[in-house]
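Sequence, structure tokens quoted for completeness.
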Amino acid sequence: MNVDTLRVSVTDRCNLRCIYCNPLGTHGREDAAGILSFDEICRVVRLCAECGVRRVRLTGGEPLMCEGIADLVRRLAAVPGIEDLALTTNGVFLETMAGGLKEAGLRRVNISLDAADESCYRQMTGFDLFPRVIAGLHRALAVGLAPVRINCVVMRDVNLVQVPVLAEMTLRLPVAVRFIEYCPTTRSTRAASCSVPNREVRERIEARFGMLSSVVLPDAGGPAVYFRIEGAPGAIGFISGRSSAFCHRCHRLRLTSDGRIKPCLHAAQSYDTRSLLRAGADDGTLRDVIARAICEKG
């Protein structure tokens, strides 16, 4: 398998309390000393690039809470072999930071947005920050962080009714709105019955806008399958991790904020780079660990 993508969690802190992810409002479980420094992140990314990684996505927690994130973007954009640098954010701080991130070398952005109105947004996240996220979305488009992709986790009896309105955004904006099947985690207080198969989500969209047409998007190497409403400048994507399997197509490694390389987000096995980095391991030793994680995906 050609593993060419690394997702890097730069912090475990988050400023929202999304009901499917952070319902108890924990703002960082790891002691600050346990989080990888920028120097450590850049070293791991450099060695991953030497092992074939070409694309890096920064995540969290909420990565825009990480002080100096634009400097990290600048440093990672300069790593030999890294051809694409992206970021996933909840969008709360994006309006003021989008320009600096673009200038530093960020190419594109994913924005988590699970609702199309302020009331439902508050129910999903615990905060009245919907206008700030929308402003951040428009600012990202204005500065050229393209493509902009919107991620919506769909939960029955919570935001399922928001689906057509979110899909309608693709008729007005050149964005990809992606609907993600809810998968319960150990941190979620919600039951599996909240999950909605994307088959049903698509039916709701087509009942409103007509049949969707399949489309292939550039830079769409992830698990989403894309479609388009007739005449729309944007696209609609479906990420169906609960109702279908796409593990055989996954080409990503994950680096957690505390320095563990994981072949999969849900993998029990992980490789501790933080201990090696802080014990003075040489590049060859670290490169061997990265290669082992890549082989595990095969």
Summary: The radius of gyration is 19 Å. The chain has nine helices and twelve strands.
